[in-house]
Each structure stands twice: as C-alpha cells, then as structure tokens.
C-alpha cells in the first residue's frame, strides 16, 4: 500500500492510497536480508503527520513509496549473513504495508515471544503505545497517589493504559471520550473513577463535577475544545504530558493562546514528548507493564480487524471510530 501524494490540512480518505501487487522473489533472498510475512499491523494517528510535508521529528512518507508502521511479522527466510534472527522468529518492527517483503534487518527490531503475550500486545501494551503511556505519565506527569489524573482519548490505545496506570498508582482517574460505549468501557472495564463524554451538551460542567479537587495531571491526547474544558480546572503546579493533539492533525495546529493564561496562573508544566525520547528506559517499562499484565492489574484491550484490505479503512477510522483500546489489523494467523 502506497501513499498517492502528500496530504495537506484535510481529513485523509481511501483515494489517498494505492494498493499494488508486486512480485516477491521468495526463492532468492539476498545475503543481508530476510523474508518477512506480516502477522499484525498497527495503525496510529501519528502516521497522519508523516503523510503531510513539514518539519517534524520524523521524515514524511514519499509519494509512491510504501507506508510503514509498527508490525509484528514472522521471519520466513534469512539471508546467509543474517545472524541475529532465524526463520520462525517473530519480530516487532517498522515494516511496509505489504503482505510479504524482503527487507534489511533494522537496528530497532525486537524479537517477540508469542508465549509471553498475544502477538498484538507487542504493538499495544508491550509496544509503542504502552511505552508512550508509561513514559509520558511517569516522566512528565509525575503522578502521586491521591491526585487527580484526567486523560483525553481515554478509551484508546494510549489513554486506556495511562488511566489504568493511574489507578494502580492510587490516583483519581477521569477519562474523556466521545461515545457512551467508550464511557462504559472506561468505567466498567478499566475501572476509571469517572468517564466524561465530550459530546454531551453539559460536558464542561460534568468534567468539573468529576474533578472536585481540580486536576493535577492532564494527559493530553486531543487538544482543541475537548481540552479547553480542562484548563480552568488545573491545580497549582499541575503537569501536562503533551502526547498528541489528534483534533488538529487534519487542520493546522490549534492549541492557541487560551492555554497560556491557565498555565501561568497555576505554574503548571506542559511538556511535549515523543516515546523514543525515553528509549533507554524501555526495558524497565516493559518489565513493569508485563508484570502488571501477569498480575491482572492492567488490561490490554484490542480492537482487531481482519485482512490486508482493512488496513486503510482502520487507519481512516482513527479520526472518528468507535474502537476500544488499540486498533490492530490481523493479516495472517500463526
Ligand atoms: P486512539 O486509540 O486513542 O485513537 C484515536 C482516538 O482519538 C479516537 O478513537 C477518537 O476517540 C479520538 N479522536 C479522534 N479525533 C478526535 C477529535 N477531533 N477530537 C477529539 N477526539 C478525537 O489512538 P492512540 O492511543 O494511538 O493515540 C492517542 C494520541 O496519542 C494521539 O494524539 C497520538 O498522536 C498520540 N501518540 C503520541 C505518541 C508520542 O510519542 N508522543 C506515540 C503514540 C501516540 P473519541 O471517540 O474519544 O473521540
């Protein structure tokens, strides 16, 4: 699957993508390459940023080149100079949206053990989105028991983990999301203290009522009007991990000056971050998240769509979908 052309400030649609058939030479693998078969594909809001041109922490996708995202794949064959992976291994890696591909082994490829957790978990709790939640909350949010944590997109891949970590650490957790099913999921399954629907006509009042002691940590995933209701509730020295601003991804950035006065008045700290900033702390984070998973203290929810043809629609639905937890596309079973 290729990107037809770079997309500017508008919502992407299926016509922005091209699906091609290419011949993969499976019988003759170059010495330094491997043949991989996709098992699970992650679609993520940040991919939208790579579809536009502009300054960023990562290069834009180029027109007519395959789109890459985090994937779990099975290695089917290895070239004779590849020593760190063998046929039959599963890896979590950035790979092209291509059912099978002959590719070089990346420095950041991680061998994953299907006995340790279901394979999609290496794209969610034990992968990029779990690490984003863990590092953003622990490093910037500085959560303390008894405080109030609010998380937007609280039922999604990152938000569902942020809120659950908050509960484990003894905070009051309030999740914000856009449907009643998501509110029920956050409160009934994830055990958040409250879930607030930003589409409710009384959203601002309901959010304020759910945070009677104000907000100490706001984990920002969304921006725009959803977050405008949070700013007046900030406590003195609140912390705001700025993880994402999905409401602006199809527009020009729009956090705006309405944020500066609340930050000033409350001496609060807002800090943007990218999960890769904390890569040196990934081993400890994975150890902790795996332990919580094993102890049943944290749930790793997936919404799984099946089939290669579902990759593009699943990506597009991130901007208005009803998925719960991490959106994953299962390409093949093994
Ligand atoms: P999610 O699983 O949370 O899916 C995105 C959700 O965002 C949707 O389900 C939708 O939920 C909500 N949403 C979409 N459009 C809007 C809108 N206009 N206004 C309000 N809510 C909207 O995705 P992820 O957990 O993967 O990502 C969440 C955030 O984290 C994103 O901003 C992403 O860019 C960021 N991120 C940042 C990383 C980093 O390193 N800094 C790494 C990974 C993710 P709803 O129905 O509630 O509206």
Automatic annotation (TrEMBL):
It comes from the Eukaryota. Keywords: Oxidoreductase. InterPro entries: ADH-like_C, ADH_N_2, ER, GroES-like_sf, MDR_fam, NAD(P)-bd_dom_sf. Residues 14-329 form the Enoyl reductase (ER) domain. This is Enoyl reductase (ER) domain-containing protein. The keyword Oxidoreductase applies. GO terms for molecular function: oxidoreductase activity, acting on the CH-CH group of donors, NAD or NADP as acceptor. The keyword Oxidoreductase applies. Gene3D superfamilies: Medium-chain alcohol dehydrogenases, catalytic domain, NAD(P)-binding Rossmann-like Domain.
